[in-house]
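Sanity check. The docking grid for magnesium ion depends on where the pocket ends up, so I'm generating a full predicted complex first rather than guessing from homology. Inputs follow.
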Amino acid sequence: MVDVLLGLQWGDEGKGKIADFLTPSYDVVARFQGGPNAGHSLEINGKKHVLNTIPSGIFHENCINLIGNGVVIDPILLRAEIEKTIAAGADVRARLHISKKAHLILPSHRLLDAASEKAKGEQKIGSTLRGISPTYQDKTGRSGLRIGDADSPEFKNLYARALEKHISVFRYYEFPYEEELARLESEWFEAVEYLRGFSQVNSEFFLHRLISEGKKVLAEGAQGSLLDLDFGSYPYVTSSSTISGGACVGLGLAPKHINKVTGIFKAYCTRVGSGPFPTELDDELGQYLRDKGNEYGATTGRPRRTGWLDLPALKYAIMLSGVDELIMMKADVLSGMDTINAALSYEGCTDDEQCPFNIQGTTVTPIYKSFPGWQEDISVIREYHQLPETFRNYIQFMEAECQVPIGIISIGPDREQTIQRK
Ligand code: GDP
Ligand code: IMO
Ligand code: MG
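Predicted complex below; grid placement will be based on this.
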C-alpha cells in the first residue's frame, strides 16, 4: 500500500517536516522525482536538518529510505549529504537504498544549466543551477547515465560520450567550462565510487516485494504541483512530474497501489525563481511575510517571493493529483495580522477553466476575499479546539472551497508543532 505526499504550490510547502512527522506510520519513505534542487527541512528537538536527495524518513530507526528511479542524483552532493546526515546521527548505511535506474547528474550537466540560464538572460527560469533540466533532457534523449551503469566496465566510455555532446553545446553557448569541469571531474568519479558502497537496488522489484509483504510506503514528492513539467506554469517549471501520477512512473508502481494522496499547502504562497505568481505581494507586506516566515531557500538561500493564498491554483493542484486530504502549513506566520486575504477566483475566468496557468504570458487578476485575522501566538497550541475561532473559521472556509478535509495543521517548524485533527 502506497500513500503519496506532495506539495500543491510552488515548492517549499513543508514536505520535509510532514514526511518526517508521518514516517512513524510507514515502513518505507521513497522519493520519486526531482533531485538536489529540492531542499526539505526537518526540525527535530530544535535542530534543523536539510535534505536534498535523501528521503525525509532517514532520521527514523526502522525506516527504509528509497531514492527511486525517477530521481536524478548528483554523486558529489549526495555524498556530502550522506556524510552530513551520518554526522547528525542517522544510520544512513543501513537505511538508504538507491535505485540503479536513477540518472546521474554529471558535472557538465551543472555547467550546462548555468550556460542555458545565462543564455536566456531576462527570460531565465531561475533554476537552482543543480543541472536538473540538462540531466532530464539526456534521460529522455536516451543518452543519460544511470547510477547502475557505474558497475559496467564501459562506464568511463559512456561518460566520455555524454561529455563530448555537452562540450559541443558549451561551444554553441560560448560558455567557459574547462576550469570548473576539471575541478569537479575527479571528485565526481570518487563520489560515484563512494555511492557504490551503498545499497543499490532494482527498486521496482525491491518496492513490490516490500508491498507484497504488507509494508506501508510513503512516496515523498519534491518541488510542487505548480512546478510540474506538464501542468505548471511552463516554461517556468522544473523538469519532472511533481503530481501524484509521477509517483507511479518514478517508482515503477501501478496506479492500483496508490491509496491515499495527501497534499501540503502553505496558508499563503511562495515561489522561488521566475514565472507567473498572480497573488504576489511585491511590497512591504510581502517582505513582512518573507521575514516572519523565514522564506529564504533551503537549497540556494535565495529570498522567496511571497503572496496571498491562491485558491484557483490550489484547487487545480488538488484536481491534478486527486488529493484526499490537505495539510495546512505555516499558519503561525499569519498570526497578528488584522486581515488575511485569499484569492477566490481570477477576473474573467469561467468556473470550468479556473486556472489559465498553461497559457504562457497570460496575466490574471485575482479576486480576493478578506478574512479577519487572529492575534494569538498559535505556535504554542497543540489541540485543534484551542485554536482561535477566527482561525478555525478560516480553515472551515478552505475545506468547503476545496471540498477536501484539512487533516493536519502545522504551526511551527518543529515536529512537535503539529496539530493532527481527530
Ligand atoms: P519543503 O521543500 O516542502 O520540504 O519545504 P522547505 O523545507 O524548503 O521550506 C519550509 C520551511 O518552513 C522550512 O524552513 C521549515 O523549517 C519551515 N516550516 C515548516 N513548517 C512550518 C510551520 O508550520 N511554521 C513555520 N513557521 N515554519 C515552518
Ligand atoms: P522543494 O522540494 C522551490 C524551482 C526553481 C526554478 C524552477 C526550475 O524544496 O520544494 P530547477 O533547478 O528544478 O530546474 O528549477 O523550479 N524549484 C523549486 N522551488 N522548491 C523546490 O524544491 C524547487 N525545486 C526547483 O527555483 O524556479
Ligand atoms: Mg524546499
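Relevant for the grid: The CA atoms of residues 125 and 274 lie 5 Å apart.
Also worth noting: The chain has a mean pLDDT of 95.
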